[in-house]
Request: fold
Amino acid sequence: MDWYPLYNSLRIAAISCGIVFFAGIAAASFAARLPRWLKGILDVVFTLPMVLPPTVCGYFLLLLFGVRRPLGRLLLRYGIRLVMNWPGGVVAASVVAFPLMYRTARGAFESFDDNLAWAGQTLGLGNIWIFWRVKMPACRQGILAATVLAFARALGEYGATSMLIGYTPGKTATVSTTVYQLWRTNDEAGAFFWVMVNLAISTVVLLVVNLLEDRQKTGGRRREELRGTGSGH
Amino acid sequence: MALEVDIEKRAGGFHLQTAFSCREEIMGILGSSGSGKSMTLKCIAGIEKPDRGRIVLDGRILFDSQRRINLPPQKRHVGYLFQNYALFPNMTVEQNILCGLHGERDRKRRKEEAGRVMKLLQINELASLRPAQLSGGQAQRAALGRILVNQPGLLMLDEPFSALDAFLRLRLQMELKELLASYGKTILMVTHDRDEAFHMCGRLGVMERGRMLAVKETKALFADPGTREAAIMTGCKNIAPAEKTGEHEVFVPDWGIHLRTGKRVEEGLSAIGIRAHYFHPTSPQNTYTIRYVGEMEEPFAWVAQFRYEGQASESPALWWRYPKEKRPAVFPEKLGVAPANILLLY
Reply:
């Protein structure tokens, strides 16, 4: 049994999830500070990868990173090859998962009570400290749910990935591209196996998201109930 | 002078233009919502940036548009008690208070100082609770503790009691006043509640549409508000345009009456005000025939609504408030008001 597709998928999803986590949060807190009209434009640009067909994203990525394109050639000079190579999968998954993180993080930040940040500032606490120790914990559940969703989206990425890195067994194969490849070559049992793997992962992810959202909704009430037990987290 | 403020700021259709100063005292800013009270506090704290002007605290320039000085909030040493107290929800009461002590490097000293202030505010038993588990009064004290350990040069309170129920409010006002009296620094408090302002503040300024009207000793302001806006904010119920007709006499066209006044009437009089409890059936002066149009019961008083005989129909009825035990068996046909109790508004 060749487990490489699973390993590769998890590797790509984990790395792109990390990238998207910081990029999405940075973009969201940057956009929140902009004037309305600029925020509107940026919103469209940042959200486009979510509504565009992934193949279109893949097409644009090929335009950017193709080995004969300026950027692709520049990267190649530093020994980085994205096309037909697994790191390209990270780029593809990041682009497609980014809007999920950005939009959810922005929603969480918008419902944040600015008084908390201002109170911190007047106490002399630094802005970076306030961001990581007050704002992020206050938006914790929304950000966590967004991260899990972004991870799931990155894990299931097919369109942009197949265009950018194709399918090479043991090199660029991911779970989703393997399913298509095996089915195409009449390996029904193999395809079914990877479908089940995919299904299992997605189910777990959705359960986690539901759990997080549930806790977010009942957060206040749970705290009340926990009064006196001393945990109250 | 401990705090001097002279600032101007435009935001949307709102124009804030205010200048005042305060000493080591409790000064209040009384104003309706949207009058620019909170905006003024935010400008002083450095959360909002004024377009123009100067803010000086104990000789330190916090903001000066001409000299391009605009200290960030972190460097202003200004304590700000927010209306919702703004305790960090992810931290315990003690951790919140320790946030105010981040400047103290010695861990043991930090713990001790936090403990001392929590004891002073009687919240030491709540140290391990989170803000969501606190009552309004406890949250207020925790937030105040977080500010006090930070030792700000100025303490600003934004509607500090509005989140509390009436019973608790009065008790906490007394407690806080006692605590602040020993504090010895400038305290600036913003409120829309005239009772709260009267209880807490030695001096009071009235703010209306972004402007600070006369700043006076609290009692003097209630006795002689001086402007229509200040009269309304201090709770005067009967206000009507008036014209000067003599040294000590005015004519009120809407009510169709002449009134003798205690104070000399200056040029530029725009209106007069009579507080609802100043009317009296046996007053020898300013007595006119009235007609009752309604009565409203309050917990400990009655409010009769009445009109003067010659009152213009579009002018609203006047209010006369009297204690329950003094409710007359037969309503008097005439009501008077002492000349000294006519508020002259310019």
